[in-house]
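Colleagues,

Please find the record for the four-part complex below.
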Amino acid sequence: MSTAHHRKKQPLFVRQQLLDVAARLASEKGMMAVTLDAVSGASGVSKGGLLHHFPSKNMLLEALFDSLLERLDAAIEEAMRADPLPHGRFTRGYLHACLALRDQPQGTKDWAQVTMVLLSEPQLRQRWRDWVRERSEEYVGTDSSVDAAIVRLATDGLWLADLLGSRDMDESARQRLIDRLVELTQL
Amino acid sequence: MSTAHHRKKQPLFVRQQLLDVAARLASEKGMMAVTLDAVSGASGVSKGGLLHHFPSKNMLLEALFDSLLERLDAAIEEAMRADPLPHGRFTRGYLHACLALRDQPQGTKDWAQVTMVLLSEPQLRQRWRDWVRERSEEYVGTDSSVDAAIVRLATDGLWLADLLGSRDMDESARQRLIDRLVELTQL
DNA sequence: CATAACATACCAGTTGGACGGTTTCGTCAA
DNA sequence: TTGACGAAACCGTCCAACTGGTATGTTATG
């Protein structure tokens, strides 16, 4: 669809498109709706083509999950660069990265929803666990206070609340909550 | 399996057993593994019998989710009864209920994991959203401070960390974290 | 004996994925 | 510049296993 004026094959583009479609299906219809037929159908790519890019369904899911993690890493790194204070920097980066990812409509639709859906598969849970462990080891010097842990947990909770659409909180209350969380990282 | 010395048919027992098996499959193998064949096979009940108790797969999933919510409600209520201080009582009840549910091996294996897996289906997400909204309206008088909200979010995060098995935290650190959370509800 | 609680058999559609074919691409010699 | 050629990118078809669900039993229970 809409290859437009680019005539050359763009395998990376197709690959990304397949991931996007899989992500959209996952967030909108749930895990059970992510089938090879559905992905290939909704993306206009044949199933053979899909299986060329991702040799199996598991490979597709893992690739999707990895791309989400990369996006999160990039967002965290960006947030940390703008933060002069070392103490609790990673925790604040994690907080702001999660907040930033929920809004941007570009690329993968709903980052949080897709992540959640993918976490329902045990194999991908292990990947997440590894990610968490790596980070917590890396920033043990600056982000291991009790309050920092609480802020990170609350960030996960916020992430969870967002994806479930519990929109009972107005923006000002939300902002006060975030301010308070930032404050907790600095204690 | 193991109807033992009870000769009479026990439809409620069978029903509960079916829910347990579905829960175990969900938490151990993920959402994609929860099929009617798998549930009936693993429980020793025929598929016909399964579909007698739950007219469709959706009905089964919804019933399972409802049973989890009931369990959570009961645990919260129990925790709240033991709490003399009105201010922040629901938040503390929520915290302690989630902590209590994760340990007990009886009945449904891993409460958190199953809940998470079920939340990957959009239809069930709506049920959860309703649950949250009801509670937040009911306890608006005692549990609407910023810190209480943070504690509830952190509880969700803790719940999430537990289910992902991020076991990097030792018990003493965990206890200090919980103490701090309780402290925050009392501010 | 009516109804609930199961089991057994069966079905049409879907599933993941294997397979062989066709087009496009990069590259390197002539 | 060309053209050959192997690899990469993709398509269409086929299939066995499985899917959720129905229809029809059989047995227990009140």
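Residues 9, 11, 14, 45-50, 52-53 of chain A lie near DNA strand D (CB under 10 Å from a C1').

Comments are welcome before we finalize the supplementary table.
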